[in-house]
Amino acid sequence: MSNTSASELREKYTHFRILVIGHANAGKTTLLKRVCNTDEDPCIYDEKKKALRGIHDINRPFIFASNPQFIFHDSPGFKTGDESQLIKVQSFIKECARATDRNEQLHAIWFCLKLDKARFLLGLEQKFFSEDRSGSAPVVAILTKYDDFITQVYDMSLDYDKNCKNAESERKKLEGLLFSYKSPPKAAVYVEDMHDNNGNHQEQVKVLIKKTEESLDDISLKMLFVSIQQNNLELCIEYAVK
Prior knowledge:
42% of the residues lie in helices and 15% in strands. By secondary structure, the chain is an alpha/beta fold. Strands 5-1-6-7-8 form a five-stranded parallel beta sheet. A three-stranded antiparallel beta sheet has the order 3-2-4, with no helix packed on it. α1 packs across α8 and α5 (146-153) packs across α6 (160-178). The chain is globular, with a radius of gyration of 18 Å.
């Protein structure tokens, strides 16, 4: 990316806005910390951009000081029998889609789903992927806690390699289910052991970054996303030579 292109891009956009959907035990915060290369908790802001502490609200953006150009919004996911959160998410997406200021628009949606063979998608989650959505923000499904999922499907009569293959097969079945709906995600990735400081979490984040970049239709947004992410150096180099 040339210096001129980067300068023009900064004039057009100041940040990249992501809605993160998922239950409290889906590993969202750990994932976002890995994306932003930090161990610190996020800063939450009110409408007057005053820092707050407490429960995340979808209308209150939060950032990590290590990479403030990523602005996140948090939804706690959808509980069985309570359609209010789904309505709130749909309203938020619609409101962002109506925004005339590019920086107030929603640029991507990361939907975190904890891998669970017995109960992968709740009814309202199925409804989210079955109905039309406002705007053009792509949805990337992030299947979390794959390490726990391997334990769920583990068969003691089989060796480790065979169990890993079986777990991969079951995961792909669940991914296939996601893509069978009327409004499927643009992409899906899976992550495991994100809490392990000695693990390969940055390699997994690289995959998430790449899949998100590929899901974006707007070339300016692609360039912005690539320029502010700090995980995938290869992707930066790829855009630098374009």
